[in-house]
Amino acid sequence: QVQLVESGGGLVQAGGSLRLSCVVSGTIASINRMGWYRQAPGNQRELVADISNDNSTKYSDSVKGRFTITRDNAKNTVSLQMNSLKPEDTALYYCNGYILTLLEAREYWGQGTQVTVSS
Q1: Residue closest to 8 by CA, chosen among 26, 17, 20, 24
Q2: How are the residues of the chain apportioned to helix, strand and coil, as percentages rounded to the nearest 5?
Q3: Among 7, 9, 63, 65, which is least packed by CB within 10 angstroms?
Q4: Residue 85: which of 10, 17, 11 has the closest Cα?
Q5: Is 80 exposed, middle or buried (0-12, 13-18, 19+ CB in 10 A)?
Q6: Average pLDDT for residues 15-38, to the nearest whole number?
Q7: Are strands 10-13 and 113-118 parallel, antiparallel or unpaired?
Q8: What is the mean pLDDT of residues 96-112?
């Protein structure tokens, strides 16, 4: 059973920083792409950043220069360092991974961690 568990969300003032982490557990053969998505009330879930297994990264235009995604393949973790946070960054943030197990290869999602940025 593969699980993705996020941590690090919370309440922060505009201009502040937070670091989100996601740990992948279970019987895993390999992890391909990993990423962070977010969903604000009334909005669709959107990609924030993702990172491939060769560490190439992609960011949404709204977070470029402020957020940094990294991964630790030895620990099966992915992190998102968020700086210069803005009220519009307020959302539920989800960890996502494309993971190969002994049975299948598919996307998995975490339960989400809330990030709230006050003005």
Answers
A1: 20
A2: 5, 60, 40
A3: 65
A4: 17
A5: buried
A6: 97
A7: parallel
A8: 96
